[in-house]
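input
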Amino acid sequence: MIEINIDLFTTLYRYYPKGSGSLKVEKGTTAGALIRQLGIPDGAVSLIFINGKRVMPDQELNENDQVGLFPLVAGG
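output
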């Protein structure tokens, strides 16, 4: 197991009751697997950041990574 820090933004916060904080995941977990593990529906996450850099869902997570998940946003 490794420990990561997670921040879910706007409408995604409901998938992690605290909205942000530490979370333990299995070593080898990818960002995409984390999204599925949290129960976030396919297509609900539009941006994934790890340690301030935009990544793809196949990016593997490491100990103490700071993960930010952002939903699709619309505006006018």
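quick obs: The chain has one domain: 2-71.
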